[in-house]
Protein backbone atom coordinates (compact mmCIF):
# COMPACT_ATOMS: atom_id res chain seq x y z
CA UNK A 1 0.00 0.00 0.00
CA UNK A 2 1.30 3.50 -0.82
CA UNK A 3 2.16 5.94 1.97
CA UNK A 4 -0.30 8.52 0.58
CA UNK A 5 -2.67 8.97 -2.35
CA UNK A 6 -3.52 12.13 -4.29
CA UNK A 7 -5.92 12.41 -7.19
CA UNK A 8 -7.50 14.81 -9.61
CA UNK A 9 -10.79 14.25 -11.44
CA UNK A 10 -11.39 10.53 -11.98
CA UNK A 11 -8.11 9.91 -10.12
CA UNK A 12 -9.66 11.49 -7.01
CA UNK A 13 -12.59 9.09 -7.27
CA UNK A 14 -10.42 6.02 -7.79
CA UNK A 15 -7.92 7.04 -5.10
CA UNK A 16 -10.60 7.80 -2.52
CA UNK A 17 -12.52 4.60 -3.17
CA UNK A 18 -9.26 2.64 -3.04
CA UNK A 19 -8.27 4.02 0.36
CA UNK A 20 -11.81 3.48 1.65
CA UNK A 21 -11.40 -0.21 0.81
CA UNK A 22 -14.07 -0.36 -1.90
CA UNK A 23 -12.05 -0.47 -5.11
CA UNK A 24 -13.42 -3.92 -5.89
CA UNK A 25 -16.98 -2.54 -5.81
CA UNK A 26 -16.03 0.32 -8.16
CA UNK A 27 -14.36 -2.15 -10.51
CA UNK A 28 -17.39 -4.47 -10.48
CA UNK A 29 -19.69 -1.51 -11.16
CA UNK A 30 -17.52 -0.23 -14.02
CA UNK A 31 -17.18 -3.66 -15.63
CA UNK A 32 -20.95 -4.14 -15.51
CA UNK A 33 -21.63 -0.89 -17.36
CA UNK A 34 -23.24 -1.10 -20.76
CA UNK A 35 -25.07 1.54 -22.80
CA UNK A 36 -28.38 1.06 -20.98
CA UNK A 37 -26.80 1.16 -17.51
CA UNK A 38 -24.82 4.28 -18.43
CA UNK A 39 -28.03 6.02 -19.53
CA UNK A 40 -29.65 5.11 -16.19
CA UNK A 41 -26.89 6.99 -14.35
CA UNK A 42 -27.24 10.12 -16.46
CA UNK A 43 -29.55 12.49 -14.61
CA UNK A 44 -29.73 15.30 -17.14
CA UNK A 45 -29.91 18.87 -15.80
CA UNK A 46 -29.51 21.50 -18.47
CA UNK A 47 -29.92 24.51 -16.15
CA UNK A 48 -27.28 23.43 -13.59
CA UNK A 49 -24.03 24.22 -15.39
CA UNK A 50 -23.60 20.65 -16.60
CA UNK A 51 -25.53 18.12 -18.63
CA UNK A 52 -25.26 15.45 -15.95
CA UNK A 53 -26.37 16.21 -12.41
CA UNK A 54 -24.34 13.40 -10.87
CA UNK A 55 -26.83 12.64 -8.09
CA UNK A 56 -27.36 9.01 -9.14
CA UNK A 57 -23.64 8.32 -9.23
CA UNK A 58 -23.15 10.09 -5.91
CA UNK A 59 -26.00 8.09 -4.34
CA UNK A 60 -24.27 4.88 -5.42
CA UNK A 61 -20.99 6.06 -3.91
CA UNK A 62 -22.66 7.30 -0.73
CA UNK A 63 -24.24 3.86 -0.30
CA UNK A 64 -20.73 2.44 0.03
CA UNK A 65 -18.76 5.31 1.58
CA UNK A 66 -21.42 6.96 3.73
CA UNK A 67 -20.21 10.07 5.55
CA UNK A 68 -16.55 9.00 5.60
CA UNK A 69 -14.06 11.76 6.34
CA UNK A 70 -10.71 12.04 4.55
CA UNK A 71 -8.92 12.13 7.90
CA UNK A 72 -10.46 8.74 8.81
CA UNK A 73 -8.83 6.97 5.85
CA UNK A 74 -5.95 4.59 6.63
CA UNK A 75 -3.44 6.76 4.72
CA UNK A 76 -3.22 10.48 3.89
CA UNK A 77 -5.36 11.46 0.89
CA UNK A 78 -5.81 14.66 -1.10
CA UNK A 79 -7.92 15.73 -4.05
CA UNK A 80 -7.52 18.75 -6.30
CA UNK A 81 -10.32 21.01 -7.51
CA UNK A 82 -10.34 24.36 -9.32
CA UNK A 83 -11.90 27.51 -7.88
CA UNK A 84 -14.18 28.65 -10.69
CA UNK A 85 -13.95 32.32 -9.69
CA UNK A 86 -10.18 32.68 -9.32
CA UNK A 87 -8.86 29.73 -11.32
CA UNK A 88 -6.74 28.73 -8.33
CA UNK A 89 -5.99 25.19 -7.26
CA UNK A 90 -7.85 23.97 -4.15
CA UNK A 91 -6.62 20.96 -2.18
CA UNK A 92 -8.86 18.84 0.01
CA UNK A 93 -6.94 16.95 2.71
CA UNK A 94 -9.70 16.73 5.30
CA UNK A 95 -13.48 16.78 5.47
CA UNK A 96 -16.12 14.65 3.74
CA UNK A 97 -14.54 12.46 1.09
CA UNK A 98 -17.69 12.50 -1.04
CA UNK A 99 -17.66 16.30 -1.37
CA UNK A 100 -13.93 16.37 -2.13
CA UNK A 101 -14.21 13.73 -4.85
CA UNK A 102 -17.33 15.35 -6.34
CA UNK A 103 -15.64 18.76 -6.56
CA UNK A 104 -12.57 17.22 -8.17
CA UNK A 105 -14.52 15.60 -11.04
CA UNK A 106 -17.05 18.42 -11.66
CA UNK A 107 -16.10 18.73 -15.33
CA UNK A 108 -17.54 21.97 -16.76
CA UNK A 109 -20.26 21.25 -19.29
CA UNK A 110 -20.72 17.69 -18.06
CA UNK A 111 -21.06 17.80 -14.25
CA UNK A 112 -22.18 21.02 -12.54
CA UNK A 113 -19.87 23.01 -10.27
CA UNK A 114 -19.94 22.21 -6.55
CA UNK A 115 -20.22 24.90 -3.86
CA UNK A 116 -18.07 24.23 -0.78
CA UNK A 117 -17.36 26.86 1.88
CA UNK A 118 -18.35 29.73 -0.41
CA UNK A 119 -16.29 28.58 -3.39
CA UNK A 120 -17.65 27.27 -6.67
CA UNK A 121 -15.41 24.35 -7.58
CA UNK A 122 -14.87 22.38 -10.78
CA UNK A 123 -12.58 19.67 -12.08
CA UNK A 124 -9.06 19.88 -10.69
CA UNK A 125 -7.61 18.72 -14.01
CA UNK A 126 -8.04 22.27 -15.27
CA UNK A 127 -5.14 23.36 -13.05
CA UNK A 128 -3.30 20.17 -12.05
CA UNK A 129 -3.93 17.05 -14.15
CA UNK A 130 -1.42 14.87 -12.33
CA UNK A 131 -0.99 16.16 -8.75
CA UNK A 132 2.65 15.26 -8.25
CA UNK A 133 3.14 18.65 -6.57
CA UNK A 134 0.50 17.74 -3.98
CA UNK A 135 2.24 14.43 -3.28
CA UNK A 136 5.56 16.21 -2.83
CA UNK A 137 4.00 18.83 -0.54
CA UNK A 138 2.58 16.01 1.58
CA UNK A 139 6.05 14.52 1.98
CA UNK A 140 6.27 11.90 -0.76
CA UNK A 141 9.83 11.18 -1.89
CA UNK A 142 8.89 8.62 -4.55
CA UNK A 143 5.82 9.33 -6.68
CA UNK A 144 4.11 6.93 -9.05
CA UNK A 145 1.74 8.93 -11.26
CA UNK A 146 -0.82 8.08 -13.92
CA UNK A 147 -2.26 10.43 -16.53
CA UNK A 148 -5.26 8.77 -18.17
CA UNK A 149 -5.56 11.66 -20.66
CA UNK A 150 -1.97 11.65 -21.87
CA UNK A 151 -2.71 10.82 -25.50
CA UNK A 152 -6.19 12.28 -25.99
CA UNK A 153 -5.17 15.72 -27.26
CA UNK A 154 -3.04 15.80 -30.37
CA UNK A 155 -3.17 12.08 -31.07
CA UNK A 156 -3.26 11.42 -34.78
CA UNK A 157 -4.31 8.35 -36.69
CA UNK A 158 -1.59 6.63 -38.60
CA UNK A 159 -2.39 5.48 -42.08
CA UNK A 160 -0.68 2.73 -43.74
List keywords for this structure.
single chain; 160 residues; alpha+beta; 5-stranded mixed beta sheet; 6 helices; 5 strands; 14% strand; globular
User: What order do the SSEs take from the amino end to the carboxyl end, as H and E?
Assistant: EHHHHEEHEEH
Beta content: 5-15%
Helix content: 25-40%
Low-confidence stretches: none
The average pLDDT is 84
- Tell me the overall shape: globular
Largest sheet: 5 strands, mixed
| N-to-C span | 44 Å
SSE class: alpha+beta
Alpha carbon gyration radius: 16 Å
Question: Please, how many helices?
Answer: 6
- The number of distinct β-strands equals 5
Description:
By secondary structure, this protein is of the alpha+beta class. It is built from 6 helices and 5 strands. Strands 1, 2, 3, 4 and 5 form a 5-stranded mixed β-sheet that branches. Helix 1 packs antiparallel against helix 5 (97-104). It starts with a strand and ends in a 23-residue tail after the last helix.
